[in-house]
Amino acid sequence: METSKHYIEPAAGRLGVLTVGLGAVASTAIAGVELIKRGLAEPIGSVTQMGTIRLGKRNEHRVPLIRDFVPLAGMDQLVFGAWDPFPDTAYEAALKCGVLDRHTHIAPVAAALKEIEPMPAAFNRDYVRRLDGSNVKPEVNKRDLVEALRQDIRDFKAAHSCDRMIVINCASTEIFLEPGPAHQDLGALDAAIDANDKSVPPSMLYAYAALKEGAPFINGAPNLTVDVAAMVELARTAGMPIAGKDFKSGQTLLKTVLAPMLKARMLGLAGWYSTNILGNRDGEVLDDPDSFRTKEASKLGVLEHILQPSLYPQLYGDVYHKVRINYYPPRGDSKEGWDNIDIFGWLGYPMQIKVDFLCRDSILAAPLVLDLVLFTDLAQRAGLTGIQEWLSFYFKSPQHSPSVYPEHDLFIQQTKLKNTLRWLMGEEQITHLGMEYYQD
User: Fold this and answer.
1) CATH code at 220?
2) Which of 11, 29, 43, 160 gives 49 a disulfide partner, CB atoms 3.0 to 4.6 angstroms apart?
3) Over the range 301-318, which residues count as b (16 or more CB within 10 Å of their CB) and which as e?
4) Residue 179 sits in which domain range?
5) pTM of the prediction?
6) What's the CATH number where 338 sits?
7) Cα torsion at 225, 156, 147, 132 (round to 10°)?
8) How many helices (H) and strands (E) would you count in the chain?
């Protein structure tokens, strides 16, 4: 198989990273990066920093670190900023969110965190009803908000001498929206923005502004945002990558591991009941039924696409799948997810799997923020535009071409990610066939 290395622009200069939202996920990610820069912590959970990639045949023993194989930006090149409806600095946000130990993991980087003061947010309570902050841009109209956000990006880039910019959405879940006429193409979207159409939520304004300013956009929330034809067109027109949606960090991460196991062994599934308790800002927002509906849609699609009931009706044709999220303030960011899984095996005999995942929501999400920023910057420098399906590894509801179904299986996603890196660097794809080891 002939391979050729793709041209990738060098990762020179400073990479500005603007987070939409400066809550638990963003403040935890930023504090972690600052600690790691200073040698005060290890980047546990980060594939870009700790992961390896096999090259060539197994007996060649070429297994470099990913960060040594592809030309990623260094962590010391990252410069962070944010928008948030609350005026707290990253330092104050990290303290209030209560994810990190204030003495071990906040105090050593306090000076850096205090420098990150959030810019006023493009925020509207019609879309996120359980929050009400004071650090908000006056909403004259949506076109003016877009222009204000574009100016924010330009000002940040100039003030911090950044060579490139990336915007990543770490904000709260908006109410449920479905694609409509305003989202069909870029012309319709522009008209909808000018008309203050309610089908254009704040998250879409951030994405529009980012892409217009030559900044890739990553959607870590389950909102529609860039997952519409108009935004894909804009990304293509602007020559920018987009990726999303909804960070895959907790219960759904486990689903994308366990469901492929059932399918691989042809074990049947009768039902899967999932419930969560969490007490952070995310939990508070999801206590609103319309915001929960957005999250529910993101979480429910996983099993159907992995198990393919149309191909295996005897095994997966009548699965009862229920997802619940309950706001429970005493738990804070320490989310607990319970799964009751009713399966059946040989001759139809029933069995059960029970999972109790006591996780830390933002601790799992923070390394995803880092990886997505670095990989998306790589995509931009490699000239990859539009949907970056190879980054589906990081998302609950991966954005994909309309011509194909989304791939949710974590291990297929991992193979796609690593094969994309091999393809970029002119290395052969790994198929795991291995017949050459057993032929004379």
Assistant:
1) 3.40.50.720
2) 43
3) bbbbbbbebeeeeebbee
4) 14-247+362-424
5) 0.96
6) 3.30.360.10
7) 60
8) 15, 10
Residue 1, pLDDT > 70, answer no
Same domain? For 331 and 391 the reply is no
The residue with tokens 């029970």 is 354
User: Which of 312, 335, 358 is the C-terminal boundary of a domain?
Assistant: 358
**Share of residues in the chain with pLDDT > 90 (%):** 89
In 122-244, alpha helices (H): 142-159, 186-194, 202-212, 229-238
Cα–Cα distance measured from residue 3 to residue 15, given in angstroms and rounded to the nearest whole number: 30
Same domain, 332 and 369: no
What's the whole-number mean pLDDT along residues 48-74? 97
Distance CA 424, CA 432 (A): 19
- 121 and 220 together in one domain: yes
Residue 439 lies in a domain: no
Print burial letters for 238-248: b (CB count within 10 Å at least 16), e (below 16): bebbbbbbbbb
Asked if residue 60 has pLDDT above 50, the reply is yes
Q: What gap in Å lies between CA 224 and CA 202, rounded to an integer? A: 11
Q: Is residue 242 within 8 Å of 204, Cβ to Cβ?
A: no
Asked if the structure places residue 28 within a domain, the reply is yes
In this structure, is the dihedral angle defined by the CA atoms of residues 181, 197, 207 and 394, taken in order, positive or negative? negative
Q: Same domain for 177 and 320?
A: no
- Which of 358, 380, 409 represents a domain boundary (last residue)? 358
Instruction: Please answer whether residues 80 and 162 qualify as being in contact, where contact means their C-beta atoms are separated by less than 8 angstroms.
Output: no
Q: Are residues 384 and 402 in the same domain?
A: yes
**Would you state the structure tokens that stand for residue 245, as one six-digit string?**
């949606």
- pLDDT number for residue 2: 52
- CA-CA distance, 364 to 243, in Å (whole number)? 19
Mind listing the pLDDT tens digit for each residue in 154-192?
999 999 999 999 999 999 999 999 999 999 999 999 999
